[in-house]
Amino acid sequence: MELGALTKQSIFNVFGWASVSFGLWTLIMINSWIIIGYHTPFASQNFIILTFIFGILAILSKSSRSLGKWGIFLGCYLVVFMTVIFMVGWAITPFP
User: Fold this and answer.
1) DSSP code of 39?
2) Burial of residue 62, with CB atoms counted within 10 A of its CB: 0-12 exposed, 13-18 middle, 19 or more buried
3) In the prediction, which pLDDT does 46 show?
4) How far, in Å, CA of 34 to CA of 6, rounded?
């Protein structure tokens, strides 16, 4: 196996694992903030954007395509999750 091919494939795998890791970390942060009653800061949006970016980069290689898809699906889930939580919170207390 050539060193160039190994390096090229491994960087895309790193992007894929970073995408999945950022997605899971953001999900853990949001859920823990909801459990302890802390208002979720909008800094978690940066992690969601990084999840999408690394997922798109990971899709470019055939060996890391599944990791990229997992990362993108986690990012989409986080967007839907935050939207639903906002709508439910807005329905319960529209004007705090």
Assistant:
1) P
2) exposed
3) 87
4) 42
Q: Please report the pLDDT score of residue 85 as a whole number.
A: 84
- In tens, the pLDDT along 22-74 reads 999 999 988 888 888 777 666 678 888 999 999 999 999 888 899 999 999 99
Token pair 């990084």 is at which residue?
Answer: 50
How is residue 20 written in tokens?
A: 């999945």
The CA distances from residue 34 to 29, 37, 75, 86, in Å, are 9, 5, 18, 12
* Four-residue CA torsion sign, 58, 59, 61, 65: positive
Q: Which amino acid is at 44?
A: S
